[in-house]
Design brief:
This protein has about 120 residues and is mainly β. It has one domain: Jelly Rolls (Sandwich), CATH 2.60.120.10. The chain contains 1 helix and 9 strands, in the order αβββββββββ. Strands 1, 2, 3, 4, 5, 6, 7, 8 and 9 form a 9-stranded antiparallel β-sheet that branches. Strand 6 and strand 7 form a beta hairpin. The longest helix is centred in the N-terminal third of the chain and has 6 residues. The protein is globular.
Length: about 120
């Protein structure tokens, strides 16, 4: 198996329209994505979204996020929240519940680990 190399310009130029985010309850967040790598247990790519928000309940996988552009507010199920922006890195473990609110057009590099629900 060979390694895989790309750059942001290439990934952005091959993006796929994801339409309006399913489950959005505020705004009309329009999404796009570009996959760099996809295997049964791991996915890597770019994802973007316009302002809006949605709830996530009992996330089925773990996601590592590096925000490249824009801003969002992440709110945990207990009500604690934080804002993320360009340069921030965070992890949403399997089983996480809460919400995403995109405040400014957001672009992120993601790694999704299909770990069967965490530990």
């Amino acid at each position: 198996m060979q390694s895989i190399k790309s750059d942001l310009e290439t990934l952005e130029s091959t993006r796929i329209d994801g339409g309006i985010r399913v489950g959005a309850d505020t705004g009309k967040p329009h999404t796009w994505y570009s996959e760099l790598f996809d295997r049964d247990d791991i996915e890597v790519g770019l994802w973007g979204c316009t302002p809006g928000g949605w709830q996530i309940d009992d996330r089925p996988d773990t996601e590592v996020v590096h925000v490249l552009r824009g801003r969002a507010r992440i709110t945990d199920h207990d009500g604690g929240s934080y804002e993320v922006g360009a340069g921030d890195i965070f992890v949403m473990p399997a089983g996480w519940s809460g919400r995403w609110d995109i405040l400014e057009d957001l672009e992120k590099l993601y790694v999704i680990i299909n770990d069967g629900g965490g530990k």
